[in-house]
Amino acid sequence: MPASKPDLPRAEVMERLEITADLVVLKLRPEVEFEFHSGQYTTLEKDGIERAYSIVSSPHEPILEIFVELVRPPAGHLTPLLLELKKGDFVSIHPGGKGTFTLEADRPNQFMVATVTGVAPFISMIRQYLHSGKRGLKFHLLHGASYQDEFGYREEMEALARKHPGSLAYVATVSRPGQERNRAWQGLTGRVNRMVLEQIQRFGLKPGSTRAYACGHPGMIQDVRKQLLPLGFEVKEEKYWTE
Ligand SMILES: Cc1cc2nc3c(=O)[nH]c(=O)nc-3n(C[C@H](O)[C@H](O)[C@H](O)COP(=O)(O)OP(=O)(O)OC[C@H]3O[C@@H](n4cnc5c(N)ncnc54)[C@H](O)[C@@H]3O)c2cc1C
Question: Number of C-alpha atoms within 13 angstroms, CB side, residue 206?
Answer without folding.
Answer: 2
